Amino acid sequence: MKDPNAKKLYAAENRLWKGARFTSRAEIQNFADIVTSSAEWVKIKRNHVHVPARVKIFSAGDLEESWISDPDEIWLAERHWHQQAVLHELAHWGFSEMDHDNGFILGYLRLIAGFMGQSVREYYAHAFKQARLQMGTSRR
Ligand SMILES: [Zn+2]
Question: Residue 60's Cα: distance from chain center in Å?
Fold first, then answer.
């Protein structure tokens, strides 16, 4: 599968501040509920067929990675119990289920702006630019 941004994105994310950290699955569910009950999520849902109205958070200590699973599940590794990872996984529904293309990055930044703040969005966008992620249209 072609996903040229993935490695660069993960490396950049690892270096960034990850927002609030969660200490229980219930806290993560609470944060996900705040996002999915927002006007922003309703707007995303209107434009993308597969976006669920609410997601269910699952976790287990021995997961190595995090992923989304149809129709409405997010599986989070324990090391991903923070806002950055939850918004990353939610962005997979709204913007690109399979990879980390342009649309994904821009959608992810929209969620960062909405739920971590505009200044955090600037900080992420700057880091992504420095990591040379493909974020423009087909410009080289
Ligand atoms: Zn991803």
Answer: 19
For residue 51, tell me if it sits in a domain: yes
Cα–ligand 1 centroid distance for 119 (angstroms): 22
pLDDT, tens only, 66-76: 999 989 999 99
**Residue 134 CA to ligand 1 centre (angstroms):** 15
> Which amino acid belongs to residue 114?
G
Six token digits for residue 7 = 């490695």
Task: List the domain range (segments joined by +) for residue 123.
Answer: 6-130
Query: How many distinct structural domains can be found in the chain?
Result: 1
Rounded-to-10 torsion of CA 103, 106, 108, 114: -140
Is residue 106 helix, strand or coil? helix
CB 52 within 8 A of CB 33: no
- Tell me the per-residue pLDDT of 56-112, one tens digit each, with 9 for 90 and over: 999 977 899 999 998 999 999 999 999 999 999 999 988 887 889 988 999 999 999
* Domain assignment present for 140: no
Q: For residue 5, report the distance from its CA to the centre of ligand 1, in Å.
A: 10
